[in-house]
Amino acid sequence: MSTFYTFTNVTTRKPHGCAYCHRPIAVGAKAEMSSGRFDGQFFRSYLHDACARAAHHGDYEDGLPMAGELLVEEYLSEYREAGVLDQVKAFWPTIEEDAAN
Ligand SMILES: [Zn+2]
Questions:
Q1: What residues of the chain score a pLDDT lower than 50?
Q2: Are strands 16-17 and 24-25 parallel, antiparallel or unpaired?
Q3: Domains along the chain with CATH numbers
Q4: Which residues on adjacent β-strands are paired with residue 6?
Q5: Distance 87 CA to ligand 1 centre (A)
Q6: What is the pLDDT of residue 82?
Q7: Which of 43, 49, 82, 90 is the 20 to 30 Å CA partner of 75?
Q8: Which residues have their alpha-adjacent CB atom under 5 A from ion ligand 1?
Q9: What backbone phi and psi angles, to 5 degrees, belong to 56?
């Protein structure tokens, strides 16, 4: 049984949950889509751009970090750049406060 795995950078057209921090990924945000086959099962998952970078750079060596902490600032600037901040606030109304703390 072959196993394969690829990832690509996408701009989401539907809301997805992040496989890394489990927070929602807003429509129109940059994300990394992973897909492949493992043990005969196809899978597809999405990560926030910031989470993907953290995952690839091994920032999680001390355990899964920072979803509610350091990265919030990064989400906030990514959402601002993508112009989807208002949409994000609908499900995460305290994002700006969270980033400031
Ligand atoms: Zn995430």
A1: 1, 60-69
A2: antiparallel
A3: 4-100 (3.30.1740)
A4: 35
A5: 16
A6: 79
A7: 43
A8: 18, 20-21, 48, 51
A9: -70, -25
Residues 60, 28 contacting (CB under 8 angstroms): no
Place of tokens 């999405």: 46
Please give the model's pTM, rounded to 2 decimal places: 0.55
The encoded tokens of residue 24 equal 């929602």
Rounded distance from Cα 3 to ligand 1 centre (Å): 25
Distance 56 CA to ligand 1 centre (A): 13
- Supply the DSSP symbol for 85: H
DSSP 8-state code for residue 13? S
Which are the contacts of 31, defined by CB distance < 8 A and separation ≥ 6?
A: 9, 10, 11, 12, 16, 18, 25, 46, 47, 48, 49, 52
Q: How many CA atoms lie within 13 A of 24 on its CB side?
A: 17
The answer to whether the CB of 53 falls within 8 A of the CB of 19 is no
